[in-house]
Amino acid sequence: MPIQIPNDLPAFAALEAEKIFVMPDDRAEHQDIRALKIAIVNLMPNKVTTETQLLRLLSNTPLHVMIDLVQMSSHTPKNTPQEHMLKFYKPFDEIKRGRYDGLIITGAPVEQLEFEDVDYWEELCRIFEWSKTNVYSTIHICWGAQAGLYYHYGIGKHILPEKMSGVFLHNTLDTSHPLLRGFGDTFFCPHSRHTGINEDEVEKVPELTVLARSKEAGIHIISDSTRRQFFLLGHWEYDRETLAGEYTRDMGKGMNPKKPKHYFPHGDVTAVPRFNWSCSANLMYANWLNYCVYQETPYELEYLIPIEHKKR
Length: 312
Hints:
Layout: E1 3-4, H1 10-17, E2 22-23, H2 25-28, E3 36-41, H3 47-58, E4 65-71, H4 82-88, E5 89-91, H5 92-95, E6 100-105, H6 121-134, E7 135-141, H7 143-153, E8 158-172, E9 186-196, H8 199-203, E10 208-214, E11 218-224, E12 229-232, H9 242-252, H10 278-294
Parallel strand pairs: 1-2, 1-4, 3-4, 3-6, 4-5, 6-7, 7-12
Antiparallel strand pairs: 8-9, 8-10, 10-11, 11-12
Helix pairs in contact: 1-3
């Protein structure tokens, strides 16, 4: 089954070239099936790249998925044309009365700011609160995960001594969890962040369970007790060249960054980077859509049961 997106969204041509079944909105109107409704709150600077990365992963199942791209009304993107935002993105106020099977909140390059100093923080808090009543299952990514843990559970973040950048080996802690079904003992995932969270703070919250961690990168996956909210500190959606692009960008700014760890073969920045997380990334997002969304969401979304959080 296809992923349903506008046929003039840049990701449409990219995915179609990869032989991924994408369906334009006008054709989807004639399908007699209820598609999974997934909203993506895209906080990343390059919206088009992140759209394509996430849509690629969400398209890799037999499920029909309909996407709404959501923007923050309180923030004007600097790296994506306004025409693109107006054409393909909806403000939160336009979707807030609707209900969704799933929600993805991406990372953002604001992690070194205090949460409350981010210009769209109040609006994002409204989305976090709305997700408890209007969304069945939510994935929070990187800074989005840190922000979600802070809002829902009062868990803070801390600045790392140096940027965590690279592809790291992780240990799977609960292979029986639906999100990790089919995983082996270990897997790879990229990380790219300046901040982290303390695992001991997570362990103090009985509603939270750590599903995967890395000896080098720390916690990666956290699930709440309802198995409806997930917090991913890594970037499974990254493609082969993303970390290389970040490294080149920072070099161009004179920041003298360290090379991403375990990424360039033999540390050679001119070599083709390793891409050893694709299988686990596709499996995790397929598991989320199948086991955590499709098989659990009420057919009539108005019957969603709100999620209760006990913030410390």
